[in-house]
Amino acid sequence: MSSTDDVGEPSDSSSLAPGTVATYSKDVSWYVPGPPTVSPAMTKLLQEWSGIGPDSEAIASHVEAVREAAWKVHPYPCIGGYRFLGLGLFAHPSFNAVVDILTTPTSSGSLEPLFVDLGCCVGQDIRSLIYAGVPGSRVVGAELESAFIEIGYELFRDREKLGVRFLSEDVLALEDSGSTDLSSESLQSSAREGLFKLIGYVSVIWTSAFLHLWDLSGQMAVCRKILLLLRDEPGVRALGRQLGSRIPHEKKHVTNKGGLMYKHSPESFRKMWGELLGQTGTQDDEETSILGSDGSRWEVQAWLEDDHPFAVQQRQKAGLDSNTNSDWLTKVSRATAGQAEGDQASREKAAFLVWEVRRAS
Q1: What is the pLDDT of residues 207-251, one digit of tens each?
Q2: 58-71 in b/e burial notation, b at 16+ Cβ within 10 A?
Q3: Directed axis angle between helix 40-48 and helix 124-131, to 10°?
Q4: pTM to 2 decimals?
Q5: pLDDT digits (tens, 9 = 90+) for 247-263
């Protein structure tokens, strides 16, 4: 699953077996009691797209009821802390570029651009695209927990008008089909058959709080599937937002199925993609251009939100700070590994990594 900020566990979680969920009890540090503080951006989306409200009290009451249903599916921190209300894609510097790609007219019979949200959770970022004018036929949401897809329809009240295809599938199950038929007719047929048949068709992939659900080897496995889904042409891109760190390291994380989370720094994230792309030559810590083993050139951008003035401004605009502050994130993140308050503070300080991988040629 995915949402905006899946960040941690309570202080007693160190006694739990890796990969297990402690409890559905609400008496935990990552559950925010009562109604949420809904950002202006999400308020506008719920009012104008979903017809909920018009007053803020009605919106908060509606969201709280939906959150209770989502909590029963899985008590992730992003659910307990209302982090699914943040619009991470809207806050990304390339949001307008993505909208432009997905709204570009195509000639009859040519392949339309296609967007896939991997681990879309309740589909909040998908709704931000549709609200911005992107046709639903060009958008696919993939979410392993099908109940979250249904809860998304409840949250946004748009089952009859959204027009987006949702797939309940595991991206790690993807294997290369060997198909090279990129006709528009083949795409429409393939999309109905599942994520597997979208291999080689996708223009833009978005992942929010998704890659950090794995350790380093798991993240590399997912990124290989991302490359498998993307079209073999310049301009395609993957972008995302996830928990990171100034110092890359692995930590225990009880709600991750493997029991571990790898937190990248911008430098380690770029190096990971260099390895995935079969980079030729050497790469220093600041290098963003990667020459792949097949001769393709990629631009890999990664930064911590707090170091990027535009990102901080957009984060606030998109409601990514609602119900959360950096002290809370740091405390809960440390608690995941059962650490005391000052233990390895420089390594465990909470930070969010924003990134984009784009094929330049």
Answers
A1: 998 999 999 999 999 999 999 999 999 999 999 999 999 999 988
A2: ebbebbeebbeebe
A3: 70
A4: 0.84
A5: 999 888 766 778 888 99
CA atoms within 13 A on the CB side of 146: 5
| Pairwise CA distance, residues 317 & 321, whole Å | 9
Helices (H) and strands (E) in the chain, counts: 13, 10
Lookup: tokens for 352: 């969010």
Tell me, what amino acid is at 124? Q
Q: What is the reported pLDDT for 48?
A: 96
List all residues 6 or more positions away from 167 whose beta carbon is below 8 Å from its beta carbon: 140, 141, 142, 143, 194, 195
Tell me the mean pLDDT in the region 199-203: 95
Using H for helix, E for strand and C for coil, what is the string for 11-56?
CCHHHCCCCCCCCCCCCCCCCCCCCCCCCHHHHHHHHHCCCCCCCH
CA distance 229 to 196: 9
The structure tokens listed for 25 are 């009890």
**Average of pLDDT values for 49-75?**
94
